[in-house]
Amino acid sequence: MFEHVKKVLSAEEASKRIPMTPDLIAVKSKRDAELKAIIDGSDKRKVIIIGPCSADNEDAVIDYVTRLAKLAEEVKEKFLLMPRIYTGKPRTKGEGYKGMMHTPDPHSHNTDIESGILHLRHMHIRAIRESGLTSADEMLYPDNLDYVIDILSYIAIGARSCENQQHRLVASGIDVPVGIKNPMNGSYGVLLNSIYAAQISNEFKYGGYQVKTSGNPYAHAVLRGSVNVHGNNIPNYHYEDVIRFSNEYIKQGLNNPAIIIDTNHSNSGKNAYEQVRIAKEIFENMKYSDFNAVVKGLLVESYIKDGNQNVLGCEYGKSVTDPCLGWEKTEALIKELADII
Length: 341
Hints:
This protein is an alpha/beta fold. The chain has a single domain, classed as Aldolase class I (TIM Barrel), CATH 3.20.20. The protein has ten helices and twelve strands. The protein has helices spanning 11-17, 22-40, 58-74, 113-131, 165-171, 188-199, 239-251, 274-285, 289-294, 327-340; strands at 46-51, 79-83, 136-138, 154-157, 178-181, 203-206, 209-212, 219-223, 226-227, 233-234, 259-262, 295-301. The strands form three sheets. An eight-stranded parallel sheet has the order 2-1-12-11-8-5-4-3, sandwiched between helices. The chain has a two-stranded antiparallel ribbon with strand order 6-7. It has a two-stranded antiparallel ribbon with strand order 9-10.
């Protein structure tokens, strides 16, 4: 049984309350074009999508992103740095912190969806204004995409969602690159089917309308490792894994074959500190032309402080979900990777 708690404002109303200004729209347009050029190979730089596991506190996120902006300027000849500002979190058992849209106040566990929508929209726009960097967020709930579609330069589809028909269809109508993770069981076939569905035109019901999409040629793969039936993590970032998958990928004849490698999750066994070693191995493999041609960058979980915490809002700049690399380790890693490539 459902109980109607209160009606939530529309995406149009949210956009009017917290609009993207013309100068910020221009920043996003430029960043979108840069990222598309990396995905299609016309820009030989790599993208590093990096930031906290969950964006729980606006001030801490903006602090992190403004630090990242300074670093982005230093390495701009090698990398496009894309802040990871994830405002919705999948919960394996359906409980726990579900992200800023559900819990906008980091010091409270109260659910307030409308306030959350306005908070996350304000945070994303503030990040662009104060850093000059547009960001990535996860499309956990396709119905909520319209609240942020005018803000984001990159949209992720998670391992739990990649087999979902609505995610695939909505991805086909998005105008920015969409990264689709391999499913939890690691199936390459499922991942390639998801990318195919996102790249073709589709017609379906969405937002109260029958809609038709043009297909998204920038939909691509994110390798995040997998989990077997015994709960063991199986990485897929090693050279042999990536080449095996890329060979299958290229055979499919899909547009712009591109792989982003997630250095955390099942690739690291959720040991955030392993991300440093993993990222370096991946960049050493960039010296091989077959690897370098298809691997376009990394996804890294990083925040101001190392590790994580169990109490929401207790410690500033420390993850409330999965552990992250702290800022000092992050800055050092990015500079080391720039020296490798």
